[in-house]
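Attaching the record inline, Q. Sequence:
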Amino acid sequence: MTHPFDAADLETLRQWDTPTICNGLEVLVPQRRAIGFTTRPMVAADARLKPIVGLARTGLIKSKEPARGPVPDRGDTYAYMAASGLPTIVVLQDIEDQPGYGAYWGEVQSTVHLALGVLGCVTNGSFRDTDMLAPGFQIVGCGVVPSHAHVHLLAYGCEVNVFGMVCVHDDVIHADHHGAVVIPAEYVTQLPAAIDLVSRREAVILEQTRQPGFNAEVLRAALKRSGEIH
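Structure, as predicted:
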């Protein structure tokens, strides 16, 4: 599949946190400002890591009970998740009545996936082995638990919903310790300019707050100037 962007375009977006990406999308796609992102607090395996940006590789998991039927072949699963030209991010929806009951992610899964070119995972499920995860592999999930339980993959390449973020195969995902957002493919290369516009508008307001004599009238004038920037 061809994309209207390349690996360098995705790498460029890693310089901004996920809220800043959302700001840019509000300018470019105002009709999406209330959809396309995670809407519950999440936990990052390492909040110090740079944001991750890549193509979604999706799946559904459960963990309370052993699988009741056939499960996907592990080799096929890894082949699906692996990066090929562009980096990937695994997006897993835990469909248990108690998501995160057992951890899919730990030392082994993070190490294997990172070696396959996967940057990280976004999930409503849990993770473990926090001191042994592959260095640089980011996990943004619901929290930490000690056991795998019976965690298993039910399906992959399907639509998923992670805390309100609906995602399908090959969606562009931007994620950090704040959560994650889907970037419509046609806007990837337009985001830097949109972010610059938002930053210039905000700078007018923020600069005034640092000046002596700042008050509501000064703010009113700054808001007007900010709104005139295009």
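The CA atoms of residues 61 and 153 lie 4 Å apart. The first strand starts at residue 43 and ends at 44.

More tomorrow.
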